[in-house]
Amino acid sequence: MRGSGVDLKKFKKINTNQNKIILLPARVVREKGIIEFIKASRLLKQYKYKFVVAGSLDYAKSSGLKKEELEEANIDKTVKFIGYQKNIYKILKKTAIVCLPSYREGLPKSLCEAAACGIPIVTTKSVGCTEVVKSKFNGELCRIKDYLSLATKIKKLILEPKLRAIYGKNSINFAKKNFDIKLIGNKIIDIYNELLIYEK
């Protein structure tokens, strides 16, 4: 079973053609690839896209970046940090590409939501991420902890709007078949019913 599902009535198809945001929707911790995202943004600033991180600073985790660390890493301000967003769909509507250069994941809900909206994705070849993104089908996969690989994949999607459209269409179809909250809910009910029968 693939995660807790996505409400497809809430996360609807988005027209990304005119959008200029490359969004990383995740907590600000090292293992989400924040530093690699910043480094990639520097290499791609000539393309006039806005690199945005939507997520809270996680001071509780040892891998959480402190405010001063972020300021030092992002000294040229190529990335904008907007903090936790209660209504992430509002940001997704302005997004051209969703990016999650994570080192490891379970099943990232942020990518499931992006797929449901038809937004092309760049993520890493980590186990959880590859459950949502299939290489050359609905997104691009880069190497883990490799900002050059990340920048190359993002650049490819920036320069190929027709490919972005194909990936977006494939993402919506994939999300309908695999992440619809109704389908996930029915599967959970079936599991409980089987357990109840077994107990009897």
- Strand tally is 6
- CATH architectural grouping: 3-Layer(aba) Sandwich
Which percent bin holds the helix content?
40-55%
* Radius of gyration from the alpha-carbon trace, in angstroms: 17 Å
Continuous helix count: 7
Could you describe the largest sheet, including whether it forms a barrel?
6 strands, parallel
Question: What secondary-structure arrangement, pairings included, does this model have?
Answer:
Elements: E1 21-25, H1 34-43, E2 50-54, H2 67-73, E3 79-81, H3 88-92, E4 95-100, H4 109-116, E5 121-124, E6 139-142, H5 147-159, H6 161-178, H7 181-199
Parallel strand pairs: 1-2, 1-4, 2-3, 4-5, 5-6
Helix pairs in contact: 1-5, 4-6
Explain this structure.
This protein has 200 residues and is of the alpha/beta class. The chain has one domain (21-199): Glycogen Phosphorylase B (Rossmann fold, 3-Layer(aba) Sandwich), CATH 3.40.50.2000. It is built from seven helices and six strands. It has helices spanning 34-43, 67-73, 88-92, 109-116, 147-159, 161-178, 181-199, and strands at residues 21-25, 50-54, 79-81, 95-100, 121-124, 139-142. Strands 3-2-1-4-5-6 form a six-stranded parallel beta sheet, sandwiched between helices. α2 links the parallel β2 (50-54) and β3 (79-81). α1 (34-43) packs across α5 (147-159) and α4 crosses α6 (161-178). The radius of gyration is 17 Å and the shape is globular.
